[in-house]
Amino acid sequence: MFSAYIDKQFPLISAYLDIMRIRFLMMMAYRVNYYSGIVIYAINIGAYYFLWKAIYGENETLNGISLVQMTTYVAVSWMARAFYFNNLDREIAAEIRDGSVAIQFIRPYKYLMVKIMQGFGEGIFRLLLFTTPGMVIVTLILPIELPKDPAIWALFMVMLFFSFLINSQINIMTGLCAFFIENNEGMMRMKRVVIDFCSGLIIPITFFPGWAETVLKFLPFQAITYLPGSVFMGTVGGKMIFTVLGIQVLWFVLLSAAVFQIWRLARRRLFVQGG
Amino acid sequence: MIYATLVMDYFKNYLKTRLTYRLDFWIEVLSDLLFNYMNLFFILVVFEHTALLDGWNRAEVVFIYGYFMVPYGVFICFFNLWGFAEKYIVKGEMDRILTRPANNLFQLSLENMDPASLFGSVVGAIIMIVAWAQLDMPVLWHDPFMLLLMILGSIMIYAGVYVALTAIAFFSDSPTGILPLIWNIQNYGRYPVSIYNKIFRILLTWVLPFAFVGFYPAAYFLDRENLSVMALLTPAVGVVFLTIGLTLWNMGVKRYRGAGS
Predict the structure, then answer these.
(1) Across chain A, which distance is largest between two alpha carbons, in Å?
(2) Which residues, 6 or more positions from A248, have their beta carbon under 8 angstroms from its beta carbon?
C-alpha cells in the first residue's frame, strides 16, 4: 500500500499529517462556534460594501476599480482571511510561557513544522465550513462578479495557500518573540492590527497615498491579502499574474530564512517562568 | 466612601501587575493607539478619493470618529468583561465575588479594568477639538454640558448592552459566539448611518443602538437643525439599555449556583 510505504520511508510525514487531521477533527467538534463567525464576516463585508458605495457616490470607477470589483475584493479578502487566519502566535507564546515548549524540544518532530500543520488543519476546516459557505451567501446577497476562467480560480487557490504560509510565518515569528521578551501580548495585538491594515484587507493598497503605497510594496503584508485579492477581482491579469505569484514565493523564502534564524537564536535563550 | 478606597486599591493593584512587564504594557498602549490611528487613516484615505461621504465632509466624519473614541475608551476601561463565562462561571470565581460585601458588578468592573484604554479617549477628545476648529463651528455656552451628557449616554448604552450580553453566561454555559458578533457591529456606528440600507439602519438605531455611541450624538454638534432630536435621544436610550442590562444581570446573579465539585 502507498500509505504503508510512506510510513516506512518517511515516518515523520505521516505524523505531521496526523497532527493536521487531529486539529481538523478538534475544530469539527466545536464547529457551532463558527456559525456566528460566518455572520460576523458577512456583516463586515456588508458594512464595507455600503461604505464603499457611499465613497464611490456618483463615480463609476476609482483608481480604475469599479464598485462591483471593489465589492468582490472586499468579499474575497474577508473570506480568505477566514482561511489563513490562525492563532499560532498565541499558542506558541503560551507554550513558551508555561514551559511546555521544553518537552517539544526533545520530541523527534520539528516543533515549528507541527505548528504549521496544526494551523493548516485549522485552515482546511475553515475553508470548508466557513470560507466556502460564507462566499456563497455573500455572492447571493451582494453584487459580486466571480472570475469565469477556471485557471484564475486554480491560481487563486495556490496564492491563497501562500497567504496562509506567509501569515503563519509572521505569526510564528511574533510568537517566538516570547523567548526574548517575557510577555508579548502587546506585540501580538499590534501584529494583528498591522496585518489587517497593511495587507490591504481594509483598503486595497493602490488606494493608499503614494508614499504609503511605495512603503507597503516593500513589505511582506501585501502578499497576504492584496495580491491574491487583486488577481481575484481581475485588476491583475496576463503576465503580471506570474510577477505577483513570484513576489509571494520570494517572501515565503525570505521569511523562511528569518524564521529559521529566530528559532536558532530562541532555543539558546529558553528559560521558563514560574514553575 | 469604602468604594472610593476600593477603586484606589484596585488601581494600585492594576499598576503593579501591568508594570511587571513594563515593555509589554507600553507596546500594548502603542498598539491600541496604532489601531485608532489606522481607523483615522482609513477615513483620511477615503477622502483622498471623494469630497463627500453621503453629504458629510472630511472634518465632519473625523469629528464623528473623535467622538466615537471617547465613550469607547471608557467602555473598554470599565465594562469590558470579555472571558467572563470561562473565568467566573466555569471556574467558579463568581463565588469569591459574591461572598464579599461590595456590589458584585462593581467588583467585576474593577477587577477587569484597563485604564490604559483611557489614552484612546484622550486622543479622541483631541481629534474632536482639532476637527471642531477646522469646521469653524461656534461653541455655545451649553455645548460642553451637552457633550458630557451625550458621552454619558453613550457609555450607558455600551454598559447596558455588554452587561446584558455578559449576563447570558448565567443562563447558558455554552459559548454562544454572540459577543464577538456584537463587538464587530459596534464599529459601524461611527459612520453616518444614512449610508447603510434600511436593515442596517434600523439595527444600529433601535436594536443594538450603536449609532448612539458615535454618529447621532456627534451629529448634534454638526447638524443642529436636522439631527438634534435623534441626538437628544442618546441619554434616554442609554437609560433604557442600562436598565435592561442591570435587570438581566441581577436576574442572572440570582440564578447563579456555583460551579459545583
Answers:
(1) 65
(2) A159, A162, A163, A166, A223, A227
Question: Which residue among A34, A182, A189 places its CB closest to the CB of B21?
Answer: A182
Q: Where does residue A137 rank: exposed (0-12), middle (13-18), buried (19+ CB within 10 A)? A: middle
Length of chain A: 275
Tens of pLDDT, residues B67-116: 999 999 999 999 888 888 888 888 888 989 999 988 999 999 999 998 88
Using only the alpha carbons of chain B, give its radius of gyration.
Answer: 20
Residue type, B236: A
In DSSP terms, A65 is beta-bridged to A62
Mean per-residue pLDDT, A120-134: 91
Of the candidates B105, B205, B106, B216, the one whose C-alpha atom is nearest the C-alpha of residue B164 is B105
* Number of Cα atoms under 13 Å in the Cβ half of residue B213: 28
> ipTM score here?
0.85
Partners of A34 on chain B (C-beta within 8 Å) are 177
* pLDDT tens figures, A74-120: 999 999 998 999 999 999 999 988 888 888 888 888 899 999 999 99
Measured between beta carbons, the chain B residues lying within 8 angstroms of A184 are: 24
Residues of chain A by 3-state class (helix, strand, coil), percent to 5:
75, 0, 20
